[in-house]
Amino acid sequence: MAAAVTARTSGQAAKPPGEAHLLSKPTILAVDDDPDVSAAITRDLRGRYATDYRIVRATSGHEALRVLARLALRGQPVALIVADQRMPQMTGIEMLE
Description:
The relative contact order is 0.19. The chain has helices at 19-24, 35-49, 61-73, 92-96; strands spanning 8-9, 12-13, 27-31, 54-58, 78-83. The strands form two sheets. It has a three-stranded parallel sheet, with helices on both faces. Strands 1-2 form a two-stranded antiparallel ribbon. The protein contains four helices and five strands, in the order E-E-H-E-H-E-H-E-H.
């Protein structure tokens, strides 16, 4: 059973963690075509940075570009892109250009 906690800052109740909270965090995007590597990188990034960043993964350069386009449309900042160089169809450098 989870307990609800209300913190007050400047007289306002703090927002509970949830999607709105995640969307307000800058994003770290991990891009790798190998599913095992992608999962490991994402797990490690979440373990270290999930408090301050939203961690998102993509399994191809094309998927990463779609994710970045959606983030841009929402006005969400991207703090870091971690990209594999050797991916089929689009290298990490090509995706970053």
